[in-house]
Specification:
Blueprint (H helix, E strand, L loop, with lengths): L16 E3 L2 E3 L6 E2 L1 H10 L16 E3 L3 E2 L6 E2 L4 E2 L3 E6 L2 E7 L3 E5 L4 E3 L2
Antiparallel strand pairs: 1-2, 2-3, 4-7, 4-11, 5-6, 8-9, 9-10
Length: 116
């Protein structure tokens, strides 16, 4: 049975090899451990205010009143947001969604709670 080695986490090369407990990339000389790969994957997960993992299409509730730049009103606590989309964080806004009355807007995951 052949073991599948991960691609290099630095340059993406597929020519990695195992040297003891370290993965090594011969293309860029980057070395890493399996633990560092798992930690990086965990850091990429988006979590709500309660620590639950969020995914595209989830429904969330806003947990506090949020001021919106350029708008005279606020997004009220308890506002239900359906069909969120996770995006690469831009100024901490890692959720893209559409809120009735506001339109397309970016939210920070720390201000929402996942609805089961």
């Amino acid at each position: 049975m052949e073991q599948t080695l991960p691609n290099c986490t630095s340059c993406g090369s597929e020519y990695t090899y195992l040297d003891g407990a370290l993965f090594v990339c011969p293309m860029c000389a980057h070395e890493w451990t399996q633990d560092s790969v798992e930690e990086a994957e965990e850091a990429l997960k988006v979590r709500d205010a309660n620590g639950q993992e969020l995914a595209d299409g989830d429904t969330v509730t806003v947990i506090k009143d949020l001021k919106v730049k350029g708008a005279s009103s606020v997004i009220k606590q308890g506002t239900k947001v359906k069909g969120i989309r996770l995006v690469d964080p831009e100024d901490g806004h890692d959720i893209d969604c559409k809120i009735p009355g506001f339109g397309q807007i970016g939210l920070k995951s720390i201000y929402v709670k996942k609805i089961k």
